[in-house]
């Protein structure tokens, strides 16, 4: 395989200063005041910091040339601008890139960059590990450690833009056009930090990603779905994967708390849902589990009346996985039934399988990195 796999030594220093990247304008104003800036100048200073951090992608106070040197020195004494470290960088033979991101406390998450002909999608994580235990998902076998902060969620996007050289934040000719929260974790179980991050990512004076190009994927935390639409305007994706509660209870155990009927009611009422902004139903194809003609017919009945598309995902195996991918004939029959009902049902082309970066595979690299850190001597790269 033509795989580039680079292990990057752990940072020699874990920063103890608060970081500015991840702060809102109000928080940046408070930071300015905390280093002696007059209160009447705080709003202006916050705007300058916001521009340098989120529009220009500055990584050092030295870069912020519109701010006086004296103020930059004071800020640097108390704060870091802020970036995560890349612990491992991998490049797939299909162009997909995966970064194992080391957070300030040493925790690890994975971020995946998926280029296409006319667009590129960045898949980011919202938790270290995962709150859920979906049986087909490798991430779900990794215990939940903690939620990511707002800064750590935004930081993945900023790090990726560093790597593809996409600063300043000009909306024309971008390499990262879409963001999906489909990485490690259940976003709606980290609701406040996810929403705060989305507000920063969509701010027109900063990173300026269109709300229409951000998708939040949930396994079905029903009480938070409507609130997400009202507060962010983000596109919604539902990890459905089954048409009957007795099946979904097993492969998506969250279903025992929020069954299919309640989940679909929340989808029907999702703010902004329309034919131009369809809800995506993700459906991983598991041989002999959820891939029958009956399942396909039940699926189109369940989503009737919802502006929707069905994203069919061939199961991506991982070491020790208990399932197999549906065969081509079963997938073809499933697609035919869904298409005939009037729903677009593209079969997602697996990307980054050779580096375990495909849907449902994010886990093993972070565990390998953690193990290597435990067994390595202090002078040995992690």
Q: According to CATH, what is the class of the largest domain? A: Alpha Beta
**In CATH, what is the homologous superfamily of the largest domain?**
Aldolase class I
What topology, given as strand order, has the largest sheet? 1-2-3-4-5-8-9-10-11-12
The major sheet is characterized as: 10 strands, mixed
Beta-strand segment tally = 12
Please give the alpha-carbon distance between the first and last residues: 23 Å
Describe what you observe in this structure.
Helix 1 (25-34) packs across helix 2 (42-55). The protein is 32% helix and 16% strand. The chain contains eleven helices and twelve strands. 43% of the residues are buried. The protein folds into two domains: 25-78, DNA polymerase, domain 1, CATH 1.10.150; 85-372, TIM Barrel, CATH 3.20.20.70. It is of the alpha/beta class and 382 residues long. The chain has helices spanning 25-34, 42-55, 69-78, 150-163, 191-202, 222-232, 245-251, 260-268, 293-302, 328-340, 364-375; strands spanning 4-7, 85-91, 97-102, 108-115, 120-123, 127-128, 146-147, 178-181, 214-218, 235-239, 279-285, 308-314. The strands form two sheets. It has a ten-stranded mixed sheet with strand order 1-2-3-4-5-8-9-10-11-12. A hairpin with a 4-residue loop joins strand 4 and strand 5. It is elongated and about 70 Å long.
């Amino acid at each position: 395989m033509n795989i580039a796999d680079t292990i990057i030594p752990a940072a020699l220093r874990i920063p103890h200063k608060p970081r500015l990247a991840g702060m809102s304008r109000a928080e940046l104003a408070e930071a300015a005041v905390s280093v002696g800036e007059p209160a009447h100048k705080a709003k202006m200073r916050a705007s300058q910091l916001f521009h340098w951090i989120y529009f220009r992608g500055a990584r050092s106070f030295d870069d912020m040339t519109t701010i006086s040197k004296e103020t930059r020195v004071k800020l640097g004494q108390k704060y870091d601008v802020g970036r995560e470290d890349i612990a491992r960088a991998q490049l797939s033979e299909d162009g997909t890139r995966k970064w194992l991101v080391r957070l300030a406390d040493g925790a690890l998450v994975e971020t995946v960059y998926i280029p296409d002909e006319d667009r590129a999608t960045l898949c980011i994580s919202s938790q270290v590990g995962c709150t859920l235990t979906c049986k087909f998902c490798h991430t779900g076998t990794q215990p939940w450690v903690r939620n990511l902060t707002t800064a750590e969620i935004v930081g993945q996007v900023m790090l990726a833009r560093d790597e593809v050289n996409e600063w300043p934040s000009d909306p024309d000719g971008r390499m990262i056009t879409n963001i999906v929260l489909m990485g490690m974790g259940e976003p709606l179980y980290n609701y406040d930090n996810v929403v705060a991050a989305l507000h920063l990512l969509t701010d027109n004076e900063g990173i300026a990603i269109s709300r229409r190009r951000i998708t939040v994927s949930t396994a079905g935390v029903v009480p938070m779905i409507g609130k997400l639409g009202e507060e962010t305007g983000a596109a919604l994706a539902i990890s459905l994967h089954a048409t009957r509660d007795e099946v979904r209870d097993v492969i998506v155990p969250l279903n025992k708390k929020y069954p299919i009927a309640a989940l679909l009611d929340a989808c029907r009422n999702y703010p902004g849902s329309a034919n131009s902004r369809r809800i995506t139903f993700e459906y991983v194809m598991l041989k002999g589990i959820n891939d029958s003609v009956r399942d396909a017919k039940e699926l189109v009945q369940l989503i009737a009346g919802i502006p929707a598309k069905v994203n069919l995902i061939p199961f991506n195996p991982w070491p020790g996985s208990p399932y197999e991918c549906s065969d081509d004939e079963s997938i073809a029959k499933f697609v035919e039934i869904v298409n005939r009902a009037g729903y677009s049902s593209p079969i997602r082309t697996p990307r980054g399988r050779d580096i375990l970066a495909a849907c449902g595979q994010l886990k093993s690299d972070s565990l390998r990195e953690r193990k290597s850190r435990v067994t390595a001597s202090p002078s040995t790269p992690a």
